[in-house]
Amino acid sequence: MIEFLALPIFGAAGYALCRRALAASAWRAGMLEPCxxxxxxPVYGRDPTGYGTLKGRYAGLPVEIRLIPEALAFRxxxxxxxxxxxxHSTGRSEILDVLRRVAGxxxxxxxxxxxxxxxxxxxxxxxxxxxxxxxxxxxxHYVDAPIAKILAEPRVKEVLxxxxxxxxxxxxxxxxxxxxxLLRENRFPVPYVxxxxxxxxxxxxxxxxxxxxxxxxxxxxxxxxxxxxx
Length: 230
Known about the structure:
Blueprint: H1 2-29, E1 40-46, E2 52-58, E3 61-70, E4 79-87, E5 96-100, E6 116-118, E7 128-132, H2 137-151, E8 156-162, E9 165-174, H3 177-183, H4 195-218, H5 222-229
Antiparallel strand pairs: 1-2, 2-3, 3-4, 4-9, 5-7, 5-8, 6-7, 8-9
């Protein structure tokens, strides 16, 4: 008799859990939907973590927005990072990676095997780690001022410059303490990413990329510019 009574209870509980999982999946996939109006030619996607992605053009440059969940640091609440990338050649061959508050679990950052450590420029936050490829001194000097303005926002975690483009990673939010401590679940108290949050990051990333592109064009040989124009 008890077994017959338990079956409906277990079934109802399983159904509730399934609906909860589906709702959470839909929420993750749709967090960037309000931002489509900010971009030209917006294209929505979904990465392997289940969070939505968004690609398009901003200020004439191709951009990509991603959400990066991270729960690897011991004794720290899970983090949800907002990543804004500009996918356009910078005209520079060097790599420069600027990280704040390094915890050693920044899996999204480039590996340090091929990057040297550089002194932190005056005026940058003290907890900053600056790494770069060989000969990146000139690049660091050129982007000193614009990156200093970006780092003035405490939530900024990373500014990455590569030959293929620019990326800024900033903290969107921390996970809910109760859900993580009791259930080890990554619940983030942000229903969606709004355009008012995304646009300043897009402007910073595209401005920095254009800063590098303009320098590359200014130093391009005359015959190379002629071939490009043709």
